[in-house]
Structure to design on (349 residues):
């Protein structure tokens, strides 16, 4: 708790309950629900078991853990190591009628349900907890690609397929990382350039995570870098976009983004002298390599059972700024090494 307070975190803990009138179960579960992260520290005592509204006879400690699961909070679990020295006065095996069965069963369930870290000393515990919290907080969600995918779909269905794109792009403003999948819908270079240009001009998206049809990561790159590479391969793509953006917005076109989309096919035909379907090129993994895109991220993958966090050492040993975390073929999120390094230094992890 002292370590977390020094690093600027607010901590809700059992020590405060002696000064409150709430029933312990209700108060504990309410506190868990309003917190961002649950940290469970388990040694060899099962804990206080409230009598009211508790037909299963679970302790406050276990009830908090279950409440965090129902509230879909990240649950970080830390167990005192089996061989760590511990006074007999703090062991249910010596103090309780069940001879420690309940706490042994709980520890067994925790090991089966969650990745668990083990500690042997207060300093060891503080370091493990702070490391896990910083990594959990620093892992950014990879947003869905529905809005950008619609830009590609509009190539087939026409601009009337798109409604309220300005609003939908605004909804992406807090999403820093977006996945784009090259399949089963085929992306054209014209539409990928358009998506990159719109994302760089109208959103705060930091990186595109481009996947193949099997959801393997091909490229991690900023919208601006992808836009640059596509423009270099065909400068007319940028000219089309800029001309669409500089056109006055007509009343029937709605927002600026809608106007750009609406104007795009005819502008392509005017500048290229052919319809978009005749000039577009399909984007494949090979085509991405040919574009010479500057990569700003790499993949850190783990497979097998369990949910063990990636260690800071393996995260920090790479060269690119962003790390895409993949577990058993599923994207877990993205870490910014620069941000993580600053937080590690601040917390002296």
């Amino acid at each position: 708790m002292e370590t977390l307070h020094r690093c600027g975190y607010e901590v809700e803990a059992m020590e405060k309950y002696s000064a409150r009138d709430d029933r312990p179960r209700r108060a504990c579960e309410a506190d868990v629900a309003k917190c961002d992260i649950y940290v469970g520290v388990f040694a060899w005592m099962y804990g206080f078991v409230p009598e009211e509204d508790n037909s299963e006879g679970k302790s406050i400690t276990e009830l908090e853990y279950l409440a965090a699961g129902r509230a879909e909070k990240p649950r970080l679990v830390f167990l005192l190591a089996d061989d760590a020295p511990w006074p007999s006065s703090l062991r249910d095996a010596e103090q309780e009628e069940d001879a420690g069965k309940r706490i042994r069963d709980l520890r067994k369930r925790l090991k089966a349900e969650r990745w668990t870290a083990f500690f042997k000393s207060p300093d060891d515990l503080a370091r493990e907890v702070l490391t896990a919290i910083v990594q959990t907080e620093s892992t950014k969600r990879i947003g869905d690609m529905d809005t950008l995918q619609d830009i590609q779909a509009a190539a087939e269905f026409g601009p009337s397929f798109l409604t309220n794109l300005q609003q939908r792009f605004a909804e992406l403003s807090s999403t820093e990382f977006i996945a784009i999948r090259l399949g089963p819908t085929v992306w054209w270079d014209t539409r990928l350039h358009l998506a990159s240009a719109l994302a760089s001009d109208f959103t705060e998206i930091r990186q595109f995570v481009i996947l193949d049809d099997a959801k393997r990561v091909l490229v991690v790159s900023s919208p601006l870098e992808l836009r640059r590479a596509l423009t270099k391969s065909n400068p007319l793509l940028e000219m089309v976009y800029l001309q669409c953006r500089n056109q006055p917005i007509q009343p029937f076109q709605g927002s600026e983004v809608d106007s750009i989309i609406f104007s795009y096919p005819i502008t392509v035909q005017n500048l290229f002298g052919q319809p978009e379907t005749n000039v577009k090129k399909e984007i494949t993994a090979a085509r991405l390599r040919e574009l010479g895109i500057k990569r700003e991220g790499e993949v850190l993958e783990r497979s097998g059972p369990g949910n063990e966090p990636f260690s800071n050492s393996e995260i920090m040993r790479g060269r690119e700024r962003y790390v895409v975390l993949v577990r058993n073929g599923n994207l877990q999120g993205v870490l910014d090494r620069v941000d993580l390094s600053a937080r590690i230094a601040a917390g002296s992890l």
Remarks:
- The chain has two domains: 2-138, 142-295.
- Strands lie at 38-42, 75-80, 116-119, 142-143, 177-181, 207-211, 217-221, 297-302, 322-327, 330-336.
- The longest strand covers residues 330-336.
